[in-house]
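Pilot study result, target chain (426 residues):
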Amino acid sequence: MTVTDAASGTTTTTGRPWASEALHRADPQLADLLAAEAERRAETVQLLAGENLTSPAVLAALGGPLIDKYAEGYPGRRHHTGCALADAAELLAIDRARELFAAPHANVQPRSATSAMLAAYAALLRPGDGVLAMSLEHGGHLSCGSRANFSGRWFAFTGYGVREDDGLIDLDQVRELAHRVRPKAIVAGSISHPRHPDWAAFREIADEVDAYLIASVAQTTGLIAAGAAPSPVPYADVTVAATHKLLRGPRGGLLLSTAELAERIDRAVFPFSQGGAAMNEVAGKAVAFAQAATPDYREYARRTVAGARVLAEGLAQVGMRPLTGGTDTHLVTADVRPLGVTGAEAERRCAAAGLLLGKSALPYDSAPPSEGSGIRLGTGTVTTQGMGERELAEIAGLIGRLLAGDAVASVGARVRELALAFADQR
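Predicted structure:
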């Protein structure tokens, strides 16, 4: 936000980077858009599972002098000179990632979890190779075989799913499919399944068919870092992670691997799938890794999971059916059909009142993906802002009121009040 003196025309700021005088002078139109985005966030309750708020320290690193440093290659092996301090920053990020996740090797350059997955495939597979992964209909990511994505065009995917009776991953099906199709790699992990994968069981199955095991943990990276979720690192050949979402770092990806695969992973990132690294993002990742190693962050992760469980219970009390009966993570996926609405309609009604969540297809769903029969929520952002179990119980009730047909205006007024009470915390 900015304040302009009418007499002198002098502009002052609140001290927020997007409200800087330099930005307002250079591009007032964009500065106003960023200020409006900040205001939108302050007045809404953010329950989108894939978003979070970064810390002021991460924001400072992102805007620091490494933002325009071209550092193509790896530390000690750059293609341009003047990279000694960029090397030091990347090595710091690598060392912190390895220690945080107890991983033999870390590559901190991927620009997103999807680009990290591309590199993982490139390191382990050749076009046409078979891959066994969670089906898109049951919670798999686009990079697990969608024909709209590189994965579905370059590799032969077979999908496994969850049991219809309890919604849990059907490991018997995974084993049967693995022995039938003999994939080159098995991917464990999803974007909407609220329970922890059985990493040891997936490793056992992968070994039975001589397949690589890739752990896809973009949604739960932060919980793993905090010890609030079991780590796949001791079991997986490659772990694909995200540095935003629960980890509260910059938008980006992370690859963890065995020492034996280190060189193949690095070459699959650069030069195969990316050029020069975004060194300001690498610096921001270093900050996030350090912060995730603190007792405060571990407590944050604990509260995030506790809040999600309360949210799931609250949604069940107002008539929705949480997938698998609850959650082990920050994710809650709930069936809204008992309230007579689709996932898309639930998303629209909640958004109109300032509650931001996402529609979601459900396993064995008869509705088209554009509508879905469920909603997917996450407690990462609201927990960062300081909301706790009491607020999340109330939020579940507000969602129930909206889906039952209560007036958007009356619910929206309470949502805005609740959001503003926690807006300045991150």
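One observation from the pilot: The first strand starts at residue 2 and ends at 4. A full batch analysis is planned for the follow-on phase.
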